[in-house]
Amino acid sequence: MDKNQWETIGALVEWLDKESPVTGEMAKTMRVLKIGEEFGEVAEALHGAMRANPRKGSSHTWDDVHKELCDVAITSLIALASLTPDAQELFDERLQHIGERSLTRPN
């Protein structure tokens, strides 16, 4: 992620801090729990795109799935930035670690 994207995440955290009636540790908890809500929306969209529920048929598109996956990622980054001022550094380090662990295996 680039600096502008992290600035947007920071602005969203500030907006939530200002506008949400939930504050302090409970606000942080709720932001982590929000990830689960967003995941549920991905699952619902996936079921709809795959026509997995015969009663509902094709209720969603693959574009809906893509958008919901983005919402999960954004919500996760907002939660991380709400928990630590070092979110960007932690995210970058973790991505590097996972990349090295997964992509540098000996053949």
Structural descriptors:
about 110 residues; mainly alpha
Describe this structure in words.
The protein has 107 residues and is mainly alpha-helical. It has one domain (3-103). It is built from 4 helices and no strands. The chain has helices at 3-19, 24-49, 62-83, 87-103.
Could you give a quick summary of the protein structure above?
The protein is built from four helices and no strands. The chain is mainly α and 107 residues long. It has one domain.
How do the strands and helices of this protein lay out in sequence?
Blueprint: H1 3-19, H2 24-49, H3 62-83, H4 87-103
Radius of gyration: 17 Å
Number of helical elements? 4
> In terms of per-residue confidence, which ranges show pLDDT below 50 for 5 or more consecutive residues?
none
Distance between the termini: 30 Å
